[in-house]
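Final report, closing paragraph on structural work. Over the funding period we assembled a curated collection of sequence-structure pairs, and we close with a single example.
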Amino acid sequence: MPGSDRLLTPRHLAALAQCPRRLWLEIYHPELARATPHFESAPFDIHELAREQEGTGTRLGPHQNHVTALRRTRQILAAGHPGPIFEARFDHEGLVADVDLLIRDPLAPGRWRLHAVLRTTKPKPQHVARLAAQMWIVEQCGLPISRARIRHIAPDFVLDTPGEYRGLFTDTDVTASARAQQSDMADLLGEARRIVAGPEPDCPTGPHCRKPAPCPFAAHCQALEDAPEWPVTLLPDGGGRKWARKGVWDLLELDAATMAKPREARIVAATQSGTPFHDAQGARRAMGSWNCPRAWLDFETIAASVPLWAGTRPYQQVPFQFSLHLEQADGTVTHHQYLCVDGSDPRPGCAEALARTIPPNATIIAYNAGFERAILRALARQVPAFEAPLMALAERTVDLLPVTRNHWYHRDQRGSWSIKAVLPTIAPELAYTQLAVQDGAMAQDSFLEASSPATSPERRRALEEALRAYCTRDTWAMVVLARRLAAPQEGNAND
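Its predicted structure, as stored:
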């Protein structure tokens, strides 16, 4: 039976601020949260880096026992510790805060500066809200705070020497905004306890499910509602909102013939009939200028929060792999690829392999090609020896995504034209669920593990094989998708 004696954290208060049901589910049914792709964006503990840059200090975590953690924190503060103190724990009436960093304020004797350490390059409102709750808890426990700051990654940091991260962090003072959010903290805690002590709240879904961030329990909540199988929200670019405002929630209630936008009309018609929209003739025209040889190209990149190689910035996209299916005019296709998992900077080898492998007269084809163009142009700047051929490749890159979006729709895409949404509807034999690596986040995690010196040779070979299979699937999927888009189908008037 639910009870009010459970420990709460600032994260729980943030959940309550978004939706009471989210708080209740996080406490009692966290397994209902929809899994999101996991990606540890650097092989570093960001908090460990922050501790190292302080030079001195005492770490109290990780905590195995709540009571012991509180006792250790009280003891070290009572003994007059000079600071810094990492991972101190405070508890005010069952609301618990683990503070990343406490530093004595030299300008305010007897008071402390409280820091939260984040991987982001700037603080967001939800970060300030959680820090405000931490600050309130700490002060309710009798420790005066002079300043509240968020220590985050400096977006303009450039790694000069691998392993030297002095200057990686910068502090943003949020004291004023944090204090402004504390006036109703006691009431918010009381409300949280009431919610936790009761049954699951009945809260309708709405815009709050997406702000300040998508709620991981949205699918659970939608399943509890009498929602249509094909909601109007499947219409792209927010097109369903105008119908929702009119009280229309079901795509099956709309008339495709009266839809103002052709794409919306296709979605409505294909959803209602179950027959895919397929304009093969239009697809052939759209791809008619794509001369052979055709180079079907896809990159896998790492965007590490903590730069890994000299000359790189936080969250800079660095390609560590590409797959290339090279198609000749007679239809023959050869496969080429590059993968670097030895821990060295993969950019020089990637640039050289691209310039060597892709013929100078080839048409380069990608899906959502703006990404591949950006990677090619960045490589051209970063590896000057291959600047000219790489810039030429970028200029010759075309995009398969708009061809697909304008000439194919199956209702099982549910409003999405991502290649992983389209493939099961047009080439189900190429499902990614068969692969060990199934998406970009898994590819980045696999790359980091394969590149680690601690990884065994056997495990590294398995990861390499999985990465090669995944990236190869991406480019072969484009070849198959383009061929089936262009193939006439019997009985289709658009062919």
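The chain has a mean pLDDT of 92. The two ends are 62 Å apart (CA to CA). We thank the funder for supporting this effort.
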